[in-house]
Amino acid sequence: MTAADPTGFTFQPIGYLQTPFADKFGIPRQPTLAPHATGVLKLLPPYDRAEAVRGLEAFSHVWLTFVFHQTAGQWSPTVRPPRLGGNQRIGVFACRSPFRPNPLGLSLVQLRSISTDEGVVLTFSGVDLVDGTPILDIKPYIPYVESQPDARSGFVSGEPARLQVVFSELAEQQCQRYQTRYPELRALIVDVLTQDPRPAYADDPARRYGVRLYTLDVKWRCDGQSAFVESLDSL
Predict the structure, then answer these.
(1) From CA 211, how far away is CA 189, in angstroms rounded?
(2) In whole angstroms, what separates CA 226 from the centre of its chain?
(3) CATH number, span 15-146
(4) Which class does domain 164-234 fall in?
(5) pTM recorded for the entire structure
(6) What sections of the protein cross the membrane (predicted)?
C-alpha cells in the first residue's frame, strides 16, 4: 500500500494450516464445535522466529485471520444460510458465508501448544478450516472485551439440535485399526457428524454420504435423528 493508492493492499500468508478436513463438506460450520479437530501451523520465514510468539503461551485461545482460498472471487450479495433451512436469503454481511467480496475469515481456536525447537509450530484444537488454509495473522483472544453474554445473535438462535452417532461393527473395528495413526479419530467423527453436515434440503435416509478426514473417506447415512457410520475407506 502507498500513500497515493490507499486501496493497494497486499497480504502475505504467515503459514498454511494443516487440518483433518480434506475438503469443505463436513467441516464444522463454526469454530470450537469440534474440539477433537486439531490444526497445526508452521510459520513461514521470516515470521518463524521465537520472539514473534513470545508471551502467546499465556493465552488459551487465539483468533486466526485466514483466506477462504477455495471461494476467492466468488462473492454474492445475498446467501442462503444453512441455519435458515437453505431457503431464505440474507445479506452477505449479515452472515459468515465464505462467498465474500474479500475472502477473509476469523476463527476462534484453542491454543494447545507452541514449539520453537525448529522454527515456530503452533497446535490448535477446535479448528473449522480446510487443510491448507492460508493464515494471515494470529491475535490473542481477550475475554473481558470480546465476550459479550448479552449480545443479540440475529437468526442464530442458540445451538442447533445434535444427531446421535452410531458406529457399525465394521466402522468400530476400523477406528481401532487407525487408532495409532489418528489417536482421536473416533471422537473427531462424532464431533463432525453430530452436527449434521448434510445440506439443509437433504432428507433421504437411504442416501450415503462421505466425509473426508485425514486420508479416510467416512461413509455414513442419516435418518434425521441419528448418523450411522458404516465404514472408513482409505483414500
Answers:
(1) 9
(2) 22
(3) 2.40.30.70
(4) alpha beta
(5) 0.91
(6) none
